[in-house]
Amino acid sequence: MSYQTGRMGIAEGIALVFIMLFPRIFLTAPANAVAASTTAAWWVVIVSGLPIFLAIFAWAYILRQTPGDLFSVSEKLLGRAGAWLVTITGISVAFIDAALILRQFAENTLLTALPQLEFSFVVGWYAFIAALGAILGLEALARGTYLLLPMSIMGLILVLLLLAPYYDIYNLTPWRGYGYVPSLQSGIHRSGINIGGLILVIFSPAMQNIKTFKWASIFGVMLGTFIKAVSILVFIMVFGVATASEKTLPFFEMARLVYINRYFQRIEALFIILWVIVGVLGIALSLYVGTYLLTRLLKLPALQPLIPLSAYIVAQLAMLPPDIATVIRLDNFIVSNFFTLVLFIITLLLLAAAIVKAKKGRLPHVPSFDD
Amino acid sequence: METIFSKSFNNLKKMLVYTPSSTPPPFVLDDKSDKTHDQFGLHSKPALEKTSEQLQMLLRQAKQVKEVLETVSMKLKSDQVTNIPQIKALLKKLSESSAEVSPVRLAYDAASLTEDRKVSAVLSENFAILEKLYKLPHNKDIVIRNLMLPLSPPVKAHIVFLDGMVDSKILNLAILQPLMFFSADHMQANSSKNNLTDQLIEACLPANQVNKAVDYKSVQHGINSGDTALFIDGIPEAVLINTKGMVRRGVDKPMTEQTVRGSQAAFSEGLRINTALIRATLKSSDLVTEILSIGKRTNTSCAIMYIDSLANPILVAEIRRRLKGVTTDFMGDIGSLQQFIEDHPGNLFPQALSTERPDRVCVHLAEGRIAFILDGIPFAHIVPVSFFTFFHSAEDFSFKAIASTGLRILRIVAAFITLLLPSLYLAINYFHQEALPTEITLAVAGARERVPFPAFIEIILMEFSFELIREGGLRIPGILGSTIGIVGALILGQAAVTANIVSPIVVIIIALAGLASFAIPDFQMALAFRTIRFLFLLLAAGLGLVGVAFGLLLLVLLLCSMKSFGVPYMIPIAPRVEGNLDVVVRGPVFHQEERPDGLNTQDDMRQPAISREWKMENPSGGSKKP
Amino acid sequence: MSLRLTISCLGLILCLLLSGCSGARETDEVAYVIAVGVDALPNKHLNITYMIAIPRVLGTSGGGGDADSSKSVTTITIKAPSLAEGRALLSSSIARSPDLSHVKVWVVGEDLARRGLGDLVAPFLRFREFRGSMYMMVVRGTAQEFIKENRPSIEVLPSRWVEGILLSGNETGYLLPTHIHEFYNRLKSTSGAPYAVLAGINPLSGQDKPSAKPTSPERASEYLPGNIPRQGGNPASVLGTAVFKRDKLAGMLTNEETRMVAILMDKFPKGFLTIVDPKMSERNVHVLLRLGKSPKINVGFENKRPVIDIDVLLEGEITSIPSGINYEALDSRKGLETQVSKAIKLQMAAMLTHTQELGTDVVNFGRYFRPEFNTYDEVASFNWNDLYPEAEIRIQVNTKIRRTGLMIKSMPIRG
């Protein structure tokens, strides 16, 4: 097949996983989290990351049994019908994720950076640039993300640190939020938001070995969850629960609030570069994942000609919801329910199939260096 | 009948009536009537020409026979017995040469192209072929001089050389003198003709490089490069003697890569001078120079240099393969050669480091890279390189680590400034006026109140004039050059501001951005950034900071997808490998232990971990107490 | 292939150009509003005053030397039912589109504040041009008059004057710079009263109108803005705090009370204090005070009554001893310290009584109660603002005089 995913090391793996988790910080997700768990929102995010850890370990086991990418693994374990089901679910997750992020970032732009732009124009431009990024290939995306990653994280941390005069630690009390049990429940319910952490499963032939896959995913998810927790922490400290749950764009509002002296104020315009880059990278990667699974499913010879088409489809999908309130509600609903279900069901199904096959001895356990 | 009336009428007519002067029609270069593509070496001669060739060859052979007959008859008439062996030798020579005019051979020779023919044993045949090849007699560059070798019997010879390409002294002293004066002493009279050339080469030609050639392709190649060809009557071989001595510019100072510390030698046009300069620094037996010839009509020599025990053999094979696979007509510039062999010729960013300093080449060769040099161009190209190599200057390692690191960071910041500053100004001016402090915003707005153009047109105008000044300044002759540059920039800028055509802040921004592009050490990289800047301007004017973000992202992704001869362009950051302390931050010279990882050289370690062994020992003088 | 590429590139550029500049505005198409004032009108309308900067005067190749504050701004007042309508009507008279992103300060008139700011501020932060880092000011009188009378003598731009004053409010602790962000948070959070910095117009007549007489051992009187006996300079004066109950103006705190609030909120950098000399009651001692460490506030419940324990440590530097008594020595210094602590404690008690009467918890003691609860629901249902007037507050102030300035002791005047 002419599309080669190349060879990726642990650094690029971390970058890929992180960029799947990162864009939602710049959207309404923190405000939704605060509305759901009030003062406990910051550690509930960490709880949401735990199912992904377990899923990564499960997938490491599955991949040790049956190496290959998502399609070939499910084909070997579940047969043709199962493989089709799993891959179609993967495609729908990727495209819906891309469409949701695209729409929200476009609305974000219209709200903050370029308020007088035409709506379809913005969506079109985002989709176009994401398509260009996806056409350049996975290696370029992974390496470019790895290059831009430290600067993005430092930009975010800079904003969080510059708000130090406004911190009020009593805004975080009481620490339990609505109570320990409701918070844990809410955390597990929302763990679908981290489904991007499993992206390396789809590209596992490109990783050097299982150890690379495992550690890259773990580090990436840890980093992403940590950054999310810290940013929600600062968000609650600065705004307090009541005001925080009202905001459409938490990061933008935080950047707006920075006021150090006469010259260092109103700096949110410079952070536009930061979140636009992160958003386009997220869209491009989701687009690439969906297109990759589609080509594997239909056994097409090449990937690149399909990308403009999928970009167009994703753009049209993104323009479907009528207004931004619907989009935010839809995003919350889909992430909490659909993604979580997919995460649990697919992982458990394939894990069960792998264990059954291992016990039946049809696929002997292949000893590898990282046992 | 010429009456006075008709005469006066004619004179009047001549005076009054306008008669156009009878000039012939002007010269017009028409299209070729028959547009058949002339593939390389595939055109065949028309049939009549073949027949005329054959007849001419027979004619020459006949003349030869006639000469021999005359000589033999003269000798026989003089009635000397000692001439018999000579006559025998003459007749043997004639019989051998007549083998060349056998019908098959004749047909074949007549049909083949002149340049594909082999050297003939008959001197007049060779003379005829050379006339045809070099378009004698109206090509005055080529000189064919007749000699008589004082052997017994004396043998006729020609030497052929290009005037101006040979060193006349060497020609006279190393070829003509020994052949004409001393060859008799060193030759044996009755030696068989077969090793006459060998004997001549071994005993009579004190030139340092001598080759034998049997076909006209090599003869031509030799003569065109400045060798002298020696044709001897009766021997189907030519001797090519190295007399290259074209006048060349000597070793000069570098013109574009000046340094404060570091050698001031730069490459020159001669290939051998350049390879010698590199050898002078890398005195290693492992340094290999391979020479290829590129270009059908130019036959330019291209030298590939590498250190055999270091460079990755796969890489060397790949470069050799690419250079050999270039089929073109004219190759006179190493830049166009680079575009023939590089991975992404359409991409603005350079994929080979072009330098005119031998010391820089040696540094990179010692790291395991490969250099190629073209004859006639004072530049060397080094492959494979990564993006960060272009921000290193030649004297980075002369200074201490911290100073050097500061300078490198300054260059990278300069690259950002030249790329982004005008676009950021435009984006903030149009869309994000809240980003600046109020006083600055009002000052900018106040300065722009009087300017009639929109900000975008202002910036384009100033950019355009800056590029004009820069490009024009390249072509102004010597003394006037810098004066006009300064005068032009200053007065133009000042007058534009006073006339309220542009606002002063735009002048400052464009000047800063332009100056910053000169801080980038590599010219092609600076050119790439300068060109992309215009794209960013468009994006910023259309979409504000979102457009700038799009542009930045696409630029980074494009850079990450490029490869320079198999090595990813942004190594060692993406993909992440062990960076030696020489990427942006430069570590101390005694910590540079490993070679760059991306090159996969055969030997990774440059220095042991403790490279300053003197620190571990006790000093000779001073106290013994620690 | 290259034909397709060329056509698509051209098509893209055409799209980019034909989309109509997508909202790009030249700097000379924008009017920079640097201050907005809002007043109440009888029929629920608003009297909106816009202060617009004139860039031409401030441009480099233009005004330069003779730019003066009256010519650098222009003020326009419009009566309209809402902010949005007022802004729309504004573009009927100025030829540029107003840009509110450079607004430094929102000035609210006293009447509107008394009527209630809920309609104005609560939905404020929805529109993207309003930001939380703008300052908010309540004026005694009308905002229109304040903006008109504000003529700074040193700065060119009045907004620069406002910003300068509010940033340097830290010099004395007599005013609490308020961003809309803080006001808004207090509106929506479960405890704490919204407050805003108070301003007024001084008649510049030199008349002294203190709000309260000085309580010994303090010497200085307390003032509300506009009442300071002053002649010359900018008629505008910024001092004190306006406190709100829910969204209505409940009362005004004088400069001394504001300083106490600043001490308790840990926002007090330094300030001068003039007290009666403990050993010679007709002379003063001047002390420069700082907070030694953050005030320790412990809260609890006793018999269903909230109890607040406050422990403040102040550090002082003696700046002037007119009487010449050697307060640098250990025992007399203790006397001075006790005097300072007494002065501060009395002031603080007075301030707390005032706020308890108004029912407004400016210092936001309510937030210290939050760790006592288990879940957020309990916090949300805890109505602190009603419990505050009954709270018992115990204050303890300690002062330590650390530095004595450039003189180590005072010699008497001879002759």
Keywords:
heterotrimer, A: Amino acid/polyamine transporter I, B: 626 residues, alpha+beta, 4 domains, 12 strands, flat
Uncertain regions spanning at least 5 consecutive residues of chain A: none
Give the CA-based shape of chain A: globular
Q: Which residues of chain B form runs of ≥5 with pLDDT under 50?
A: none
Give the number of DSSP strands of chain B.
12
Overall description:
The complex is a heterotrimer of chains A (371), B (626) and C (415). Chain A has 371 residues and is an all-alpha fold. Chain A has a single domain (10-360), classed as Amino acid/polyamine transporter I (Up-down Bundle). Chain A has helices at 10-21, 29-37, 41-65, 70-112, 119-135, 138-162, 180-189, 199-202, 210-244, 250-257, 272-298, 306-318, 324-360. In chain A, helix 5 (119-135) crosses helix 11 (272-298). The model of chain A has no long low-confidence stretch (mean pLDDT 88). Chain B is an alpha+beta fold and 626 residues long. Chain B has four domains: 48-111; 114-247, no CATH class; 271-385, no CATH class; 409-568, no CATH class. In chain B, the strands form three sheets. In chain B, strands 1-2-4-5-3 form a five-stranded antiparallel sheet, sandwiched between helices. Chain B has a five-stranded antiparallel sheet with strand order 6-7-9-10-8, with helices on both faces. In chain B, strands 11-12 form a two-stranded antiparallel sheet. In chain B, a hairpin with a 5-residue loop joins strand 9 (370-374) and strand 10. The mean pLDDT of chain B is 84. Chain C has 415 residues and is α/β, with parallel strands linked by helices. Chain C has two domains: 27-256, no CATH class; 270-410, Nutrient germinant receptor protein C, domain 3 (GMP Synthetase, Chain A, domain 3). Chain C is built from 13 helices and 13 strands. In chain C, helix 10 (255-264) crosses helix 11. The longest helix of chain C has 29 residues, at 330-358. Classes of the chains: A mainly alpha (371), B alpha+beta (626), C alpha/beta (415). The A-B interface holds A 8-12, 109, 113-114, 117, 125, 129, 132-133, 136-137, 139-144, 146-148, 262-263, 265-267, 269-270, 272-274, 276-277, 280-281 and B 428, 431-432, 434-435, 437, 543-546, 548-550, 552-554, 556-561, 568, 570, 573-576.
